[in-house]
UniProtKB/TrEMBL annotation:
One GO-annotated biological process of the protein: gas vesicle organization
Top-level taxon of the source organism: Bacteria
Subcellular location: Gas vesicle
Species of provenance: Terribacillus saccharophilus
Origin organism lineage: Bacteria, Bacillati, Bacillota, Bacilli, Bacillales
Protein's name according to its UniProt entry: Gas vesicle protein GvpL
Length: 269
């Protein structure tokens, strides 16, 4: 009976010299059988575990991810927790969930081919953390603020008061649309200003799509979603600024939510 064929499940790659400072501690891999290990390719070290080729072959893996939601959730959490742990110890380029190589040889070939790009990434993310900021808004307090302080709406209201009563009725209906437009404008300007201030602290930033209430399950609308790559010695300043803005704007209906530190997912792909 032949030996069972295994594939390579790659968690991430780190600078090989950092393993000399912080030795690698093996952990149980995604299949709960094999121990994770490392392989060095020059200045690059891969952290991986072997997995059964039959179970992790393309079509079989796709079917499992679609049909076995319990396995998917548990395995995705395992992958995420491993990366969080590794990120605390090394300059980590994290791999996406279920990054599979058919053999040691194919992994080595890929890493050697991408060595220059990988070294550049190590330099970019060294000593940094990824942080996410989501900004939520309660429209009602902000809508009231817009009604009270928007010059264009005040002008329109004054204009309506000079019209005959019949015309006033129809023109007032247009106010609602004008308020909605001003509300969106106010929200965008507010979030962009916050983002600009945080960008001065961060090394890099990316704006993401805001999630709908269907995704967040929250009552408040998400108005902004962005990620920042921040040097560890700047994280405190970043969080203090977020907290300050949160406190200053809470009465106007704003709520800030900063989460992290995360592996640099958004800055390595």
């Amino acid at each position: 009976m032949g030996q069972k064929e295994n594939y390579i499940y790659l968690y991430g790659i780190v600078p090989a010299n950092e393993l000399d400072v912080t030795p690698f501690s093996p952990f149980t891999g995604i299949d709960k059988e094999q121990k994770a290990t490392i392989a060095r390719y020059g200045d690059i070290a891969a952290i991986y575990t072997e997995v059964d080729a039959e179970a992790y072959e393309g079509e079989a893996l796709e079917t499992r991810m679609k049909d076995d939601l319990e396995w998917l959730q548990e395995s995705a959490m395992h992958h995420h927790e491993v990366l969080l742990s590794l990120q605390k110890q090394y300059t980590l380029i994290p791999m996406k969930f279920c990054t599979i190589y058919l053999s040691q040889g194919s992994l080595e070939e890929k890493l050697c081919e991408q060595a220059e790009t990988i070294e550049t990434l190590f330099t970019r993310i060294k000593g940094s953390e990824e942080w996410n900021l989501k900004i939520y808004c309660d429209d009602e307090p902000l809508r009231e603020h817009v009604l009270q302080h928007s010059p264009s709406i005040k002008e329109k209201m004054n204009e309506i008061e000079t019209l005959p009563p019949g015309r006033q009725f129809f023109e007032k209906r247009k106010i609602d649309q004008l308020v909605d437009d001003e509300l969106e404008k106010e929200k965008n300007q507010f979030c962009e200003q916050i983002h600009a201030e945080l960008t001065e602290i961060a090394s890099e930033e990316k704006v993401k799509t805001a999630w709908s209430k269907d995704v967040t399950g929250r009552e408040l609308e998400m108005s902004w979603n962005s990620v920042y790559l921040i040097q560890k010695n700047q994280v405190e300043a970043f969080l203090e600024l977020v907290q300050q803005k949160n406190e200053e704007s809470a009465s106007s209906g704003w709520k800030f939510e900063a989460t992290g530190p995360w592996p640099a997912y958004h800055f390595v792909y």
